[in-house]
């Protein structure tokens, strides 16, 4: 079991390191989307921090499994170097998303997406749920992970992705 877990870990880190994006890794990306409070949020509001953009749905078991770890990661990093943004990919009402977020104790901003595959996938393709993009402090898409993700995996990626560059240039 431990060997299988290590194999999965190495595979996930390989996928993270690939850095797939529609715009290209050198392009600075931005988008504006509403959160569950009805406020507009811009990706560029978080320049200077790593941004973990997680596409998810309430019916997706792996999505639900990663919520506590993503919340812990967000809580531990939001005042320092990184934030999590969760984009829900369903056509749910704002009140339903608020209730769901409260019942799952989601501490990071939950954004209202839709089930239209072209509507909210501003960073690149979302072939399955969950899909997570990691955006550098300068606003570049650095990685994409398809499948569940842990805070430990994100921290490891952040440490190695820009180790030879200043964070602002990453």
Descriptive key words:
five-stranded mixed beta sheet, 170 residues, alpha/beta, 32% helix, single chain, Glutaredoxin
In short:
The protein has 170 residues and is an alpha/beta fold. The chain has helices spanning 2-18, 61-77, 94-103, 151-161, and strands at residues 32-34, 40-42, 50-56, 82-88, 110-112, 131-135, 141-146. The protein has one domain (2-169): Glutaredoxin, CATH 3.40.30.10.
Structure description:
- It is a single chain.
- The protein is an alpha/beta fold.
- It has a single domain (2-169), classed as Glutaredoxin (3-Layer(aba) Sandwich), CATH 3.40.30.10.
- The chain contains four helices and seven strands; from the N terminus they run αβββαβαβββα.
- It has helices spanning 2-18, 61-77, 94-103, 151-161, and strands spanning 32-34, 40-42, 50-56, 82-88, 110-112, 131-135, 141-146.
- Strands 5-4-3-6-7 form a five-stranded mixed sheet. A two-stranded antiparallel ribbon has the order 1-2.
């Amino acid at each position: 079991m431990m060997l299988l877990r290590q194999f999965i870990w190495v595979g996930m880190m390989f996928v993270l390191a690939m850095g797939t994006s529609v715009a290209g890794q050198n392009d600075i990306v931005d988008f504006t989307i509403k959160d569950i409070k009805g406020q507009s949020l811009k990706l560029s509001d978080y320049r200077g921090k790593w941004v973990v953009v997680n596409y998810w749905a309430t019916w997706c078991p792996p999505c639900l499994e990663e919520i506590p770890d993503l919340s812990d990661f967000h809580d531990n990093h939001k005042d320092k170097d990184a934030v999590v943004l969760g984009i829900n990919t369903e056509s749910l009402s704002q009140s339903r998303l608020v209730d769901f977020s409260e019942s799952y104790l989601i501490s990071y901003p939950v954004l209202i997406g839709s089930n239209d595959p072209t509507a909210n996938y501003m960073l690149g393709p979302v072939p399955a749920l969950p899909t997570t993009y990691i955006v550098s402090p300068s606003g570049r898409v650095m990685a994409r992970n398809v499948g569940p993700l842990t805070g430990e995996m994100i921290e490891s990626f952040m440490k190695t992705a820009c180790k030879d560059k200043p964070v602002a240039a990453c």
